[in-house]
Amino acid sequence: MRYFALIVNDVDGSSSWYQAVLGLEELSRSTEEGSYDIINLVGPGVFVELLQLPHAGERPGGQTQGPFKVGMLVEATTIEDLWEIVRLADGLSMTPAM
């Protein structure tokens, strides 16, 4: 499953576009008045999180302000499985701190 989180200016308009053009379906929606609006969309093999943030926007110099995150959905049933996935994906030698 692929996961994408996108900061958008119009969460409802963007959701409508992703549903109409890519065939995604709305899974859930969350709103905190004045703070954020989130719509989660799903489709075959993909999960898209749309975020509308009132204070996110472009700053001088082309830098974007607002929260950033990276997320992954993995099929791991134990922490050891998760570390093995990370090690194989990045060629890292990591030992989890327990």
Report the radius of gyration as a whole number of Å: 17 Å
Helical residues, percent: 10-25%
Architecture (CATH level 2) name of the domain at 2-67:
Roll
Please identify which CATH superfamily of the domain at 2-67 we are dealing with. Answer: 2,3-Dihydroxybiphenyl 1,2-Dioxygenase, domain 1
Q: Unreliable runs, pLDDT <50, ≥5 residues?
A: none
Strand numbers in spatial order across the main sheet: 1-4-3-2
Approximate strand percentage: 25-35%
Largest sheet, if any?
4 strands, mixed
SSE sequence, one letter per element: EHEEEEEH
**CATH fold label of the domain at 2-67:** 2,3-Dihydroxybiphenyl 1,2-Dioxygenase, domain 1
Task: Based on Cα principal axes, name the global outline.
Answer: extended
Could you report the average pLDDT, rounded to the nearest whole number? 76
What do you see in this structure?
It is a single chain. With 98 residues, the chain is an alpha+beta fold. It contains two helices and six strands. It has helices spanning 11-22, 79-90, and strands spanning 2-7, 25-32, 36-43, 46-52, 57-58, 64-65. The protein has a four-stranded mixed beta sheet with strand order 1-4-3-2, covered by helices on one side. A two-stranded antiparallel sheet has the order 5-6. A hairpin with a 5-residue loop joins strand 5 and strand 6. The longest helix has 12 residues, at 11-22.
